[in-house]
Amino acid sequence: MPKRAVNRRNCRQNYWRVDRGKTLIDADAACAVSKSLPHGHAALVHAAAGQLGLPAVLGLAGRERDLAYALIISRVLRPTPKLSTRAWWNDVTLGPDLDVAGASRNEVYAAMDWLLGRQDAIEATLAGRHLSTGGMAMFDLSSSWVEGSHCELAARGYSRDAKKGTLQIEYGLLTDPDGRPVAIRVFPGNTADPTAFINAVDIVRDKFGLAELTLVGDRGMITSPPMTGRCSCRCSTNRTSPKSAAPTTPASVSSRAATPTWPSYGRSNARACCAPPKPCWALSPPGYRPGDCPVPTRLAWRSARSSISTRWPNTST
Questions:
Q1: pTM for the complete prediction?
Q2: Phi, psi of 85 (to 5 degrees)
Q3: Is the previous residue joined to 296 through a cis bond, with omega within 30 degrees of 0?
Q4: Domains of the chain: which residue ranges?
């Protein structure tokens, strides 16, 4: 009998058996599960990142982008050192899906170098999405202690991890009002808060091209002499008081008779107001008397006294 006829007859017989509810092949005997990889959590984060457009933000498709993208997803699912992450890719479907399973250590480090070269472009894209002229951004500085002796940025400084006497690095994060990251910078471990804040101001102004933006930071960052001439600062030393408005100054600021008009929030906010650059007002007025301001800053007073001679307003009423 021709082979085609045999196959046709076998198909008719199999159809007859299935139609009557008979089992053709025992699944347990014919199939065996050799390996099962967790999938759901990796697929969820992968899909969410795709909807946010993260792969396109990172750059053009390629081996380096896939590795960097896999590292980012892994930080969400399993934040561990990169070498441990590389081994974990073989245990979930993320590795085969992104074709990063079995990636070598050098490939992972090369992907990090590639990502560093893309930092400015990525941050500019995020700033275009989340920041706008006249809007608001937030900045804060944190630190992490360092184990080892070969980190160029490791230094002793103010530890936010309660690890006094240990080497550390610091990193400043710039976000939009909803807390979405826009830019990040890493600093030596002994960097002061005002220095990091000035760096954030330069990024917003020079790299993002935003001439007017409300940048929010804690009081230790924005009420220090290095901010002189950088930006106009509007802050409050009283948590319950409204935001202090900047004082108004006559056009002839170079005259000794020029006297700014301070807002009527009370003398507790006198040191919390700063005028726009040129001049930027000191934190403590010349001729400071105990009780005029809650916490005088003598260094700022000396700096302002040497740069501009203008009568300080009477805020005692």
A1: 0.62
A2: -65, -40
A3: no
A4: 40-117, 128-222, 228-317
